[in-house]
């Protein structure tokens, strides 16, 4: 039984802010010397991002709307972790629900058909969690099976889709709702450390959801053919996500693109087979330099990673939700035809590479 992504829904916070405005705000932090300000300018300008969305209106110069106080004039505040997590609890459920409703609406199924819920997030935690709230907010059956994948980072959409595919393989009548929401801006750090500057230059907020069920003839979708995961020999300390007293602290060193560049060709060939047979690529845009390294290492033409670069340009790196935005765009691309083979790659702490092979399904007349 082949499992297929029937539809994908997405959701973004209302506040959109220009990359240049975030750059200037971050560079203006008290205690930043000229060297730090130059690093901020270089990192933000090289990120290939135009705009990002955030649940913190103050980052765009607006009022806080009664939520977390993130800014006092030009100074960014450093709230304690509990306050940041409270804001996650306040704002994340609506984004989970909006993305999920969009996915269900496009799937040809109604909410009552959903049998399993898989939620994904690494930017907040509470219980009962987002999996429970989706059952309540979408009026799903109280007998829906629920799973939550936490702290897997940017790579988590692929393990979530893999779990959904395994569920459908075991139960062909299953309808699995996969939903990811990340509020990375809640964990902004005002450190002048280069790793924190790089993290601040790319991460953003967003949510996406997919409905996965048995593939249907006559219905568009992305068939989930195969999956693989691989832990590299290096990178355990180069990409990390830890809980600190002032939010979750992201470590993202310059070694990450270099490790991916060195390792990705062998991993991709082992996981995806003959790369010449790939018609479309969905590569998680952890940053522009990561996409550049993947493109070079796999000898891809400039157009191959255009969908990934466009999502990065418009929205930044929304951690686990980002890959679903790219798959959404590929599924909606009218130039894509039935049988197109799609390769998906994402990278998470470890350093872990997650991969998936998908096949585009179009209605055949």
Written overview of the protein:
The protein is α+β, with helices and mostly antiparallel strands and 365 residues long. It has 10 helices and 15 strands. The radius of gyration is 20 Å and the shape is globular. The strands form 4 sheets. The protein has a 9-stranded mixed beta sheet, with helices on both faces. The protein has a two-stranded antiparallel sheet with strand order 2-3.
Termini gap: 23 Å
For the largest beta-sheet, the strand count, sense and barrel status come to: 9 strands, mixed
Average pLDDT works out at 93
Provide the helix percentage: 25-40%
User: What gross morphology would you assign?
Assistant: globular
Structural class by sheet pairing and helices: alpha+beta
Rg, Cα atoms, Å: 20 Å
Q: Within the largest sheet, what's the order of strands? A: 7-6-8-9-1-10-15-14-13
SS element count, helices: 10
- The succession of helices and strands, N to C, reads EEHHEEEHEHEHEHEEEEHEHHHEE
Fraction of residues in β-strands: 25-35%
Which regions contain 5 or more consecutive residues with pLDDT less than 50? none
For the secondary structure, the number of strands is: 15
Can you describe this structure in just a few lines?
The chain is 35% helix and 27% strand. It has 365 residues and is an alpha+beta fold. The strands form four sheets. Strands 7-6-8-9-1-10-15-14-13 form a nine-stranded mixed β-sheet, with helices on both faces. A two-stranded antiparallel ribbon has the order 2-3. It has a two-stranded antiparallel sheet with strand order 4-5.
């Amino acid at each position: 039984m082949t499992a297929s992504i029937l539809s994908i829904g997405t959701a973004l916070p209302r506040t959109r802010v220009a990359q240049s405005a975030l750059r200037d705000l971050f560079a203006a932090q008290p205690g930043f010397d000229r060297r730090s300000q130059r690093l901020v300018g270089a990192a933000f300008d090289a990120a290939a991002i135009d705009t990002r969305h955030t649940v913190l209106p103050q980052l765009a110069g607006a009022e806080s709307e009664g939520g977390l106080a993130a800014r006092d004039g030009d100074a960014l505040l450093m709230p304690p972790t509990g306050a940041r997590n409270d804001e996650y609890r306040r704002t994340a459920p609506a984004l989970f629900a909006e993305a999920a409703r969009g996915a269900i609406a496009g799937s040809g199924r109604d909410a009552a058909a959903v049998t399993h819920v898989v939620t994904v997030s690494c930017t907040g935690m509470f219980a009962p969690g987002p999996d429970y709230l989706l059952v309540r907010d979408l009026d799903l059956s109280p007998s829906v099976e629920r799973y939550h994948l936490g702290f897997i980072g940017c790579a988590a959409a692929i393990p979530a889709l893999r779990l959904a595919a395994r569920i459908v393989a075991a139960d062909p009548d299953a309808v699995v709702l996969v939903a990811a929401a990340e509020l990375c801006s809640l964990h902004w750090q005002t450190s002048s450390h280069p790793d924190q500057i790089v993290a601040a230059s790319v991460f953003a907020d967003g949510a996406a959801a997919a409905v996965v069920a048995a593939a249907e003839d006559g219905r568009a979708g992305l068939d989930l053919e195969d999956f693989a995961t691989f832990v590299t020999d290096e990178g355990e300390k180069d990409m990390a996500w830890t809980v600190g007293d002032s939010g979750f602290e992201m470590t993202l060193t310059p070694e990450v693109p270099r490790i991916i560049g060195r390792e990705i060709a062998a991993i991709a060939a082992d996981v995806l087979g003959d790369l010449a047979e790939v018609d479309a690529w969905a590569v998680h845009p952890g940053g522009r330099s990561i996409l550049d390294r993947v493109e070079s290492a796999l000898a891809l033409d400039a157009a191959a990673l255009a969908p990934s670069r466009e999502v990065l340009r418009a929205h930044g790196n929304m951690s686990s939700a980002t890959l679903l935005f790219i798959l959404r765009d590929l599924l909606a691309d009218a130039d894509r035809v039935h049988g197109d083979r799609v390769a998906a790659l994402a990278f998470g702490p470890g350093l872990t590479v997650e991969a998936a092979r998908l096949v585009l399904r179009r209605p055949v007349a």
